[in-house]
């Protein structure tokens, strides 16, 4: 079981904190990690000591979540060579009145992306399982749908549906970019 820790940059804006609460409601085995004023190395080491296997750092620009860095904490702490640039975000509170009560146990990805790197980054970011939907019995799962909005620009749209086909979690427009780490 992969345990994913979501945290923010220092002094996050309200929308960034809301995004963290939204995303942990749809990502299985994910937890909010309060960073406070600690530096990045201390934060990553604390997560590793608490058995997190993946750390997600959400940075904000001008009050909005903007740039997501992903760290693999399984053996040596290292940043993966891809990052996510958010280009648009709708929080669940902006389109639904009903609060999600149960956190999903599994999440699945249905994707029309033909890029293995982009799919692997999305799988790591969203804690996607390798199981198939017909292998589980519970209704506590979330399906993430990913599709290109603009394939030339690499702009991807992601939305989440629960086991009862209701929209849950945030809707995101993102671009996966390659980084030198």
Main traits of this protein?
alpha/beta; 181 residues; Rossmann fold; globular; 9-stranded mixed beta sheet; 41% strand; 3 helices
Question: What do we call the CATH topology?
Answer: Rossmann fold
Tell me the radius of gyration. Answer: 16 Å
Give the distance, in angstroms, between the N- and C-terminal Cα atoms.
Answer: 26 Å
Helix and strand run: EHEHEEEEHEEE
Helix content: 10-25%
Number of strands: 9
CATH class (first level) name:
Alpha Beta
CATH architecture: 3-Layer(aba) Sandwich
Task: Provide a short characterization of the protein structure.
The protein has helices spanning about 15-25, 40-50, 115-125, and strands spanning about 5-10, 30, 55-60, 65-70, 80-90, 105-110, 140-150, 155-160, 165-180. It is α/β, with parallel strands linked by helices and about 180 residues long. It has one domain: Rossmann fold (3-Layer(aba) Sandwich), CATH 3.40.50.
What does this structure look like?
By secondary structure, this protein is an alpha/beta fold. The protein has one domain (4-178): Brix domain (Rossmann fold). Helix content is 18%, strand content 41%. The protein is built from three helices and nine strands, in the order βαβαββββαβββ. The protein has helices spanning 14-24, 40-49, 116-126; strands at 4-8, 30-32, 54-61, 64-72, 78-90, 106-111, 141-150, 155-162, 167-178. It has a nine-stranded mixed sheet, with helices on both faces. It is globular. The model has no long low-confidence stretch (mean pLDDT 87).
